[in-house]
Specification:
With 186 residues, the protein is α+β, with helices and mostly antiparallel strands. 41% of the residues lie in helices and 28% in strands. It is built from four helices and eight strands. The chain has helices at residues 2-18, 22-32, 64-77, 152-185; strands at residues 38-45, 52-60, 83-86, 91-97, 100-106, 110-117, 131-134, 141-145. It has a six-stranded antiparallel β-sheet, covered by helices on one side. A two-stranded antiparallel ribbon has the order 7-8. The radius of gyration is 20 Å and the shape is elongated. It starts with a helix and ends with a helix.
Length: 186
């Protein structure tokens, strides 16, 4: 019994060591199971063998606790990344291993994971280097651009967020004009 436990532990540790971003993936996997988290997942497979070669996942959350767990995992893995960009509102880290390239982007209310396998022979690098634009005030995703690497479901979510942002901007503009006209009358 004890030998099985040790062998299972060794196998687990070997799997974790093989993935530079293992801590980030474990937190994402855990968050996906939460009832208050929404996940959008897309994948691409080869036509003949149906082998997976590209994955994009967005995990939306509202709890600050989830952000803190992810931020810690990002920091724990930063020294293993090939590229790390960190601002006050966003972190984007890129990892490469023998299976492919993974890019992770963390904001205050979402984490985006893009993976592209080494077998991916398409020439559209945009599929992993997607441009994600976030509203600096509300820190919400407002637009996404890619040459085909992100599927329709993600675009629908971006469009819905963009509509909410546009409506908020419209209301703020009306309110500002109202205050401006009141100030002119004084």
């Amino acid at each position: 019994m004890r030998i099985r436990y040790i062998l299972a532990l060794v196998a687990f540790m070997a799997g974790v060591a093989a993935s530079a971003q293992g801590r980030i993936d474990r937190v994402i996997d855990d968050l996906e199971k939460k009832s208050d988290v929404e996940t959008t997942y897309t994948e691409r497979r080869t036509a003949k063998s149906h082998k997976l070669y590209r994955i994009t996942m967005i995990v939306y959350f509202n709890k600050d606790e989830y952000y803190k767990r992810l931020a810690k995992a990002f920091e724990d893995e930063r020294d293993k990344s090939i590229s790390a960009v960190k601002t006050r509102d966003q972190r984007t880290y890129k990892f490469i291993d023998d299976k492919g390239t993974s890019t992770y982007t963390l904001t205050s209310n979402s984490v985006i994971k893009s993976w592209r396998g080494v077998e991916d022979s398409s020439d559209d690098d945009s599929s992993t280097d997607v441009n994600w634009n976030f509203d600096p005030v509300g820190r919400t995703l407002v637009s996404c651009s890619s040459d085909g690497g992100v599927e329709t479901a993600i675009y629908r979510k971006v469009a819905a967020v963009q509509l909410r942002v546009n409506e908020a901007v419209r209301r703020a503009t009306v309110e500002a004009l109202r205050y401006s006209s009141m100030a002119d009358r004084m």
